[in-house]
């Protein structure tokens, strides 16, 4: 099943995808 860690990994993947469009400083802010 899904655990909290799975949601964290998914969130990180989403941030990696958005980093292609947004400046890294804004992504990691």
From TrEMBL:
Superkingdom of origin: Eukaryota
Protein name, entry field: 4a-hydroxytetrahydrobiopterin dehydratase
Species this protein is from: Nymphaea colorata (pocket water lily)
